[in-house]
Amino acid sequence: MSESSAGDVVATAAAAAGWRRAGIAGAAIGVIAAGAAAGVAVERMTVGRGMRKKARLALDAAGPYGALRGVPGKAVADDGTALHYEVDEVELESGTGSGPAATGSRRRRLFGRKAPTPVTVVFSHGYCLSQDSWHFQRAALRGLVRTVHWDQRSHGRSERGRGPAEGVPVSVDQLGRDLKAVIDAAAPEGPLVLVGHSMGGMTMMALADHDPALIRDRVAAVAFVGTSSGKLGEVSFGLPVAGVNAVRRVMPGVLRALGSQTELVERGRRATADLFASLIKRYSFGSRDVDPAVARFAERLIEATPIDVVAEFYPAFTEHDKSGALPAFLHVPVLILAGAKDLVTPSSHSEAIAEILPGAELVIVPDAGHLVMLEHPDVVNERLADLLVRIGAVPTTAPTD
User: I need a surface site. Which of 16, 50, 281, 285 has the fewest CB within 10 A?
Assistant: First the structure.
């Protein structure tokens, strides 16, 4: 038996035993929070738990990731849920410039010094993340083009969605209407560029389904990053199909049960932090040499999502099917980008979107997983820059200095 096969057997046994204990169940649900499933080979830990805890604290203290903030605002969804957004305005200085627009020769090479047209780029994040997951893209664009970053309902700084408390399940359609509320509040006029990762891309599709006139009249370009237009119920997460089908049959009930035991599960998830970190790394990234601070940043984003929020959102993805809404984007430049090793929304789903939008630019990033915008930010930034240059939102690339 190969080392990898032996590891899979051990992982499967560990996962099966884990479902009988709240601690391991918490960690397994943490995987779902990453958009994955149980059954991954667990790395052997050779460093003491106390030292690992100190290392995590050191990374949290030193890492600047997620610290960027903009001018805050609040949009109100159609069910009364308050949605937090932040706006980064265009750098208005001329000449050589100062502040965000003049920071870093890399950004100047990519984007020039300021945006010449009043375009607003709206970023929508994925499941169990927050607007901070766009950290590197926000840093690159800051001061150069107007951007809006928002937290999906029940995520980040937004209010807990009111629907579940009133017996209304979360739906991707609702998320599309939420995005419309954010646009109405933060960017009521002018051309738009919509950028969405995973659930954020699905949110953009739902917006197109809900308000095709907005897409037709105001959207100048779109970028779908690691997302899917449907058939998520067929994703295997890199596991044997039989095992995945078995998990799917019991998952809704397990999530409902654990969602009602929030404190117990969260305590278990914290107690199994090392297992949780290993699972997050497996399902978030495709390369082995991910910056430890970036990996820890991804953990922090996912850790911040309460288990009952995980449970509320999970069923919406198996029902998601917005392939019929995609033709609304046929008239604009489209970027479709995915990691070649994405186990959550496989690159084949991006290829399916490209078949419906044949004029789109399809980019499959080698050695990249689901969180491609954190794992390979330069690639994502360059492709976004190209898209924005194509529509005149930023000037042509300046000479290298």
Answer: 50
Tell which residue, 23, 43, 41, has the closest CA to residue 270.
23
> In CATH, what number is assigned to the domain containing residue 185?
3.40.50.1820
Q: Output the pTM of the full model.
A: 0.79
**Per-residue tens of pLDDT for the chain, all 401 residues:** 444 444 443 344 443 344 344 443 444 444 444 333 333 333 333 445 565 566 666 666 667 899 999 999 999 999 999 999 999 998 654 433 333 333 334 444 555 444 445 899 999 999 999 999 999 999 999 989 999 999 999 999 999 999 998 889 999 999 999 999 999 999 999 999 999 999 999 999 999 999 999 999 999 999 999 999 999 988 877 766 666 666 666 566 655 555 555 565 556 555 455 556 777 888 899 998 899 899 999 999 998 998 889 889 988 998 999 999 999 999 999 999 999 999 999 999 999 999 999 999 999 999 999 999 999 999 999 999 999 999 999 877 533 33
Q: In what order do the strands lie in the sheet with 82-88?
A: 71-76, 82-88, 146-150, 120-124, 192-197, 219-225, 334-339, 361-365
Complete DSSP assignment for 214-265: HHHHHEEEEEEES--SB-GGG--TTS-HHHHHHHHHHHHHHHHHHHT-HHHH
- The residue with tokens 């627009």 is 101
* 56 and 81 inside one domain: no
How many secondary structure helices (H) and strands (E) does the chain include?
16, 8
For Cα atoms 88, 392, 220, give the angle at the middle one, nearest 5 degrees: 75
Residue 281 domain boundaries: 3-42+51-63+234-314
**CA 233/CA 391 separation, integer angstroms:** 36
Last residue of a domain, one of 272, 293, 314: 314
Question: Which residue in the block uniquely carries the two structure tokens 């408390």?
Answer: 165
